Amino acid sequence: MSVRIELLQSLFVSVSKLTRAFKVAGTRTSHADDLTGLGISDTEALIFIGSQENCINSDIATYLGVAPTTATSIIDRLVRKGLVERKRTEDNRRVVRLVLTPNGSTMRQVFIEKHLTDCRRMLEMLTDEEQLVFVQLFAKVAEAVEQNRASDS
């Protein structure tokens, strides 16, 4: 299946606009003083850690598609901000689990609510039928991109 160049260019511009909008929105909240120095990777890691029962450094690296040293830097920032704690397991003291602090859980919820508000605004621009088609197609593309990324690693 071929893709027309003008469709490709239009998609590129649209994805760039959405990416910028989500990056800016992801770090702009009512808790701005608490977020000094947090970037999009930090917020994505915070959201991910909160969604996992057992999360370790390598899980963050894999999820974000970054080197383990980069994941460690991200986690270090979150720990310094008091959003994440490192906890050794009783079974194996070498294993360090990542858990959100109460403040981290609060900030995670703030980020999720902000993202949901932005998504709601996007979908409100469409009819009910368009919303359904858009979300289905967007999910299909996102799943394919994730699978391709996983197979490239």
Explain this structure to me?
This protein is mainly alpha-helical. It has six helices and two strands; from the N terminus they run ααααββαα. It has helices at about 5-25, 40-50, 55-65, 70-80, 100-125, 130-150; strands spanning about 85-90, 95-100. Strands 1-2 form a two-stranded antiparallel ribbon. A hairpin with a 7-residue loop joins strand 1 and strand 2 (about 95-100). The two termini are about 25 Å apart. The model is unreliable at about 30-35 (pLDDT under 50).
The total strand number stands at: 2
Please identify the structural class as seen in this structure.
Answer: mainly alpha
Oligomeric state, counting identical vs distinct chains: single chain
Radius of gyration, in angstroms, nearest whole number: 18 Å
Q: Low-confidence spans: pLDDT under 50, at least 5 residues?
A: 29-34
Helix content: 55-70%
N-to-C series of helices and strands: HHHHEEHH
- Choose one word for the global shape: globular
Short key terms for the protein model shown above:
single chain, about 150 residues, mainly alpha, two-stranded antiparallel sheet
Secondary-structure blueprint of this entry?
Elements: H1 5-27, H2 40-51, H3 57-64, H4 68-80, E1 84-88, E2 96-100, H5 102-124, H6 128-152
Antiparallel strand pairs: 1-2
Helix pairs in contact: 1-5, 2-4, 2-5, 3-4
Brief description of this entry?
The chain is 68% helix and 7% strand. By secondary structure, the protein is mostly helical. Strands 1-2 form a two-stranded antiparallel sheet.
